[in-house]
Design goal:
Helix 1 (20-55) runs antiparallel to helix 2 (60-83). The protein has helices at residues 20-55, 60-83, 91-119, 124-151, and strands at residues 2-3, 9-10. The protein contains four helices and two strands, in the order ββαααα. By secondary structure, it is an all-alpha fold. The protein is 74% helix and 3% strand. The protein has a two-stranded antiparallel ribbon.
Length: 158
């Protein structure tokens, strides 16, 4: 409850009105759910990447982009129906924003992979996977902030 200018108690609205411990707990749960979905996406990313690069002899950049796109598709479902299922959804807008920010994430990830693989010489099975891991980790921070702030933003349902 809060008090308006007339001195009348009115129910508080929005996340800012919640106690700090409740906001912190909600953020912690969100981070854990994001990590679970993201972790499954990382598994898809690495499995596809290694299958394409080392099993299918695809060029390194093609392997990383294709693997990232496959992970992006599986992540959308996890984020939409698990991590952010309580958020108000306008699916066409949400999907368009998800694709736009995921595309930026893939560009970041691919650019970082390119620098690590070609610039730093992280090649071969161990080196390419290290480059992939580094690029995923850095791009994931961007994705978390973008998905939280713009893609799956909205009032939580009561």
């Amino acid at each position: 409850m809060s008090v308006n200018l007339a001195g009348v108690r009115v129910p508080a609205r929005g996340a800012a009105a919640l106690p700090a411990r409740v906001r912190s707990r909600r953020l912690a749960v969100e981070v854990v759910k994001f990590g679970l979905v993201g972790g499954s996406g990382v598994a898809v990313n690495f499995l596809a990447f290694n299958a394409l690069l080392h099993g299918g002899a695809a060029p390194p950049m093609a392997a990383t982009v294709i693997a990232s796109c496959l992970a992006m598709a599986t992540n959308y479902l996890g984020f939409r129906f698990f991590t952010y299922r309580d958020r108000a959804a306008r699916v066409p807008r949400q999907l368009a924003l998800f694709l736009a920010f995921s595309g930026l994430g893939i560009l970041m990830e691919s650019g970082l992979f390119y620098v690590s693989h070609h610039g730093l010489g992280l090649t071969g099975p161990v080196g390419s996977n290290a480059a992939k891991a580094l690029s995923i980790a850095l791009a994931s921070a961007f994705r978390f902030l973008a998905y939280r702030a713009w893609v799956f933003a909205g009032a939580t349902s009561p």
